[in-house]
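User: I'm preparing a small set of examples for a lab meeting where we compare how different chains pack in three dimensions. I only have the primary sequence for this one, and I'd like the structure in token form so I can line it up with the others. Please keep the answer compact; I'll paste it straight into my notes.
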Amino acid sequence: MEESGKKYKYTLINYITMLDIKLESSNDFSFADSSTRLFFTIRISGRKENVHQQKGITGNWLIIVIDQSSSMVGEKLETAKQAAISAINELNPGNYVSIYSFSDEVEVVADHTSLNDVKRLENGIREITAHGRTALFKTMDFIINKARPYAEDAGSVTLIMLTDGQPTDVTDIHRYESIAGMAAEYGIKINSIGIGSDYNEEIIKKISDITNGEFYNIVDRSQIGTIFGSYVQQLNKTVATSAVMSLNLREGTDFKSYDQNFIQQGNQYLLNIGMISDIPFLITGQVVVPPGKEGIVNVMNISIDYKDENGSSKSESIEFKITRTNDSKKIFSGTRQDIINAARVKMNVEKFEYLTSVGDITGATKAIGEARKAAEATKNIKLIESTRKLENIVSSTPTGKVDKKQIYNETSRIKKKGD
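Assistant: Understood. Below is the structure token output for the 419-residue chain.
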């Protein structure tokens, strides 16, 4: 259902307590006599007045993991250490930090530590030195199990992991998928930063994708501090923690997300969001509504369970309702092409990313071409530039020699931030 027509905006905004939950659908109607595909976006953020009235909920846990293998010697390691020091100085008191470094073994610099003695934390970070190899699997397994009890007790955990090398302990990506799946189940969000040209982008990006974190390919070392700082800013403006979204679909309705990794349980889809701040958390996807009797239909219940600034459990929800009809004029005139175009960008970027990962450059080239056309239709300058950049990468590189690090950096940003 992608015909153009006058814009019709279907928006629900929930102003109960702490959150803004905004749902936009590509149409308010569906066909009564056939299945109908509808695109949608959901934006979740803290209400502006709540963000401005408080300094941010405390009790969050920021975990910073720094590769200290021999290849990190020099400016790479020093930049990472300085970024960590800046982060702990900027993080609001009342939150917790853990600092781990790793080479052949995991070294605990600080373990779930309050910010009462920042100088001691700074000194511990400065003492990190480069040596040894890159035991990535051992490190992630250790840290996820350390964070598990806190996360299971409904605590929000944000993990930033930086590495520059190939894993020297475990190279089987399926084992990383397994521990990442465990982290996702507990609500531990892992954000991966790859620096240099030698790290394994397939492994660390997979970890981030499964846990709904972000992936970064760093070319300029100064970006490390900016990335660390962005997560600290979110933590400092947190209005809700331990947030879990559940989507309960009407029987027979198909669902797909283009940018977040949901856990399916029958007709219910679960997503551990973790903390919610003033920065919108985005979900873009589609539902296929089955045919049926004319009238109003509740396609999906959207609910978010979370903890507020007092640690009290709260829940907010909205309904995704449409009207089944045999009046095709209503359907086509009600189409919102802007929602369709935005969804098509992410849909084709996701396809492009997958085809690139399996080496189908011909298919990937076609997919990113479709994404670029959809981006141009949105008139979003950042989206247009990003999709054109990806198109140029695959068109100007010999088949099979594409720079996946650079590609994944762009696709991750488009999928997670919408630009």
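A couple of notes for your slides: The longest strand covers residues 295-307. The domain at 10-53+239-335 is CATH 2.60.40.3670 (Immunoglobulin-like).

User: Perfect, thanks.
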